[in-house]
TrEMBL record:
Transmembrane segments: none annotated. The lineage of its organism: Bacteria, Pseudomonadati, Bacteroidota, Cytophagia, Cytophagales. This is AraC-type DNA-binding protein. One of its GO terms (molecular function) is DNA-binding transcription factor activity. The keyword DNA-binding applies.
Length: 282
């Protein structure tokens, strides 16, 4: 592993093979802090937060540090696992370069995958091969070369994600696509303190009805649902992965009335917070 990990001061990027032998390592705590990209051939089963995915063809998965990843089943063919930190490459700072925040990562559909076409399989295979060769060379330009390959992967995957998960009319209208990304990024940044469409309308300098009309035109869920879904997703994470009480979680998510939060959770999930925790962990 030491030959496929770049670590210089606070900047880290690593590339590992994925197979049955690496399942426990990938599921362990060592990579929780990193941004992760998995390239998995057919036959793999992976859980991201509360959704399970089974690969029918080579597929890329994009996992943020705040998401929970579990590789439940490995296929016969090995895949690849990239992990890196924001000091190595921050998609927010370099948004103009790759424009993937709000699409590959932190998207309102919580859909972290891109299925690879035959053409993309060949391209991705070349990218991983070149990255491995760079690690083996140990040249002084390793950091910048590997970062260049990472950016190519992100740009290519972003194009594919838009084709696979957005209406064609959205991808053809750059202004609509940028609105989609901006709203998504705002919700990700402020969902713990801003709970209404009006709050985000203030950020965007437009009327709440204008946001709703844009979402209707983009054939997206209602903006209020997007906000509430993000809040409930975080509540589920905290219920399953921490020992916080429902009341503490309500306060953490910006609700001063825990009873109101519990009713919201019940409405969105069909279970009380305590019931969800017991059923998931049971």
């Amino acid at each position: 592993m030491s030959t496929t990990v770049f670590n210089n001061n606070s900047k880290t990027l690593g590339l590992l093979h994925v197979s049955k032998a690496q399942t426990d390592v990938i599921n362990g705590p060592d990579y929780k802090q990193y941004i992760k990209i998995l390239y998995l051939p057919a036959g793999y089963k992976i859980r991201v937060d509360f959704a399970c995915y089974e690969t029918q063809q080579p597929t890329l998965f994009f996992i943020s540090p705040n998401q929970y990843l579990e590789l439940e089943k490995a296929g016969e063919e090995s895949g690849y696992f990239i992990f890196y930190n924001r000091d190595f490459y921050c998609i927010q700072i370099h948004d103009q370069e790759v424009a993937c925040d709000g699409l590959l990562f932190n998207n309102i559909r919580n859909m972290p995958k891109v299925e690879a076409s035959e053409e993309e399989i060949a391209f991705l295979g070349g990218i991983f091969k070149e990255m491995i060769q760079e690690f083996q060379l140990k040249d002084s330009s390793l950091e910048e070369m590997v970062r260049t390959y990472l950016k190519q992967l992100l740009i290519r995957a972003t194009r594919s994600w838009k084709r696979q998960h957005l209406d064609n009319a959205v991808t053809e209208q750059q202004s609509d696509l940028e609105f989609f990304r901006k709203f998504t990024r705002l919700v990700e940044e402020h969902y713990k303190s801003k709970h209404t469409v009006a709050d985000y309308a203030d950020f965007l300098c437009m009327a709440p009805k204008t946001i709703t009309h844009k979402f209707n035109r983009l054939r997206l869920p209602q903006p209020n649902e997007v906000i509430k879904n993000r809040i409930i997703l975080e509540a589920k994470r905290l219920l399953v992965h921490t020992s916080l009480t429902a009341k503490e979680i309500a306060y953490d998510l910006g609700y001063n009335d825990p009873a109101y939060f519990s009713r919201l959770f019940q409405t969105k999930t069909g279970e009380s917070p305590s019931g969800f925790r017991a059923n998931f962990l049971g």
